[in-house]
Amino acid sequence: MKIARLSQVSHSDIHAAFLRAFSDYQIPVKETLEEMAVENRQRGIDYDASFGAFADNGELVGFLFCGVRNDEGALSYYDGGTAIIPEWRGRGIGGLLLDTMLPDAKSRGAYDFILEVIQDNVNARKLYESRGFSISRNLRCYKKSLKDIPLMESFSYTIKTPEMDEYREVSKSLSLPYIPSWQNTNASVLSIFEHLITRVLSHGGKPVGYFVLNPQTGHILQMSALGGLPSIYSELMSLVKTCTMADSIKFINIDESSTFITFLEENGWDRYIDQYEMIKCFKPTS
């Protein structure tokens, strides 16, 4: 068994291992190579900071995608996907990948390392805890069939399609009702802005609500309404329905303490996955 950086591997080989490793995952994964590339760009994946496990014949049998971002001088790492192909599980490969990646991240000056793990995945959580990760918050995922979201005959507000700079301004003026997880932050939105659909509802020239949507997957990365008004959320949801080709729309990783959850649950959204956000902070080197 050899552990090496994924920057040495072709993207097609990484994609082949990606599909095999997630073939029996709790959340179905059937991404094309291009879709994987976009998703990894969204997560800030750095292949030179990411590692793979290779069998003696050179086959990639497991990997750990690492996202890397510099946030106001603090270097943060993120587990953008860890998986082992089924026939190679149970051999400690996940631990080997972590034990290679964590010292590497620390040596590069990482301040912290963040990941999410499905709450039912007890073995993975224990692995992370054994390497010094602790639970930072509980996250919930919701979805709703597109056919169950009502269309509005008319909208109360002006609908705008913002350019990137305007999105930046709107997202500053309308704070989200929860702290977004890594893949839903402004940095993630901006990294793949051309692949997303963003709409702003405004009144009297001022924004009162907005959303950011991946039209391919139905994943809503961000949604905010002035004052948390349910009527604005309802109009935003109705507008989302006209912008996606997916069968359902999803919110991934909503902090369980957010009041936005009340809106979702009162409007019949299905809570389909619960996750823990976990974090490991590195001691600063002197």
The largest sheet is: 8 strands, mixed
CATH topology type of the largest domain: Aminopeptidase
Q: What's the rounded overall pLDDT mean?
A: 94
% residues in beta strands: 25-35%
- Structural class designation: alpha+beta
What can you tell me about this protein's structure?
By secondary structure, this protein is an alpha+beta fold. It has helices at residues 11-21, 33-42, 93-107, 122-130, 164-173, 186-191, 230-241, 260-266, and strands at 2-5, 51-54, 60-71, 74-84, 110-118, 134-145, 158-160, 197-203, 206-214, 219-225, 248-255, 270-281. It has two domains: 2-132, 3-Layer(aba) Sandwich (Aminopeptidase); 142-274, Aminopeptidase, CATH 3.40.630. Helices cover 28% and strands 34% of the residues. A hairpin with a 2-residue loop joins strand 8 (197-203) and strand 9 (206-214). It is elongated. The two termini are 34 Å apart.
Helices and strands, with pairings:
Elements: E1 2-5, H1 11-21, H2 33-42, E2 51-54, E3 60-71, E4 74-84, H3 93-107, E5 110-118, H4 122-130, E6 134-145, E7 158-160, H5 164-173, H6 186-191, E8 197-203, E9 206-214, E10 219-225, H7 230-241, E11 248-255, H8 260-266, E12 270-281
Parallel strand pairs: 4-5
Antiparallel strand pairs: 1-2, 2-3, 3-4, 5-12, 6-11, 6-12, 7-8, 8-9, 9-10
Features:
2 domains, Aminopeptidase, 28% helix, 12 strands, 286 residues, alpha+beta, eight-stranded mixed sheet
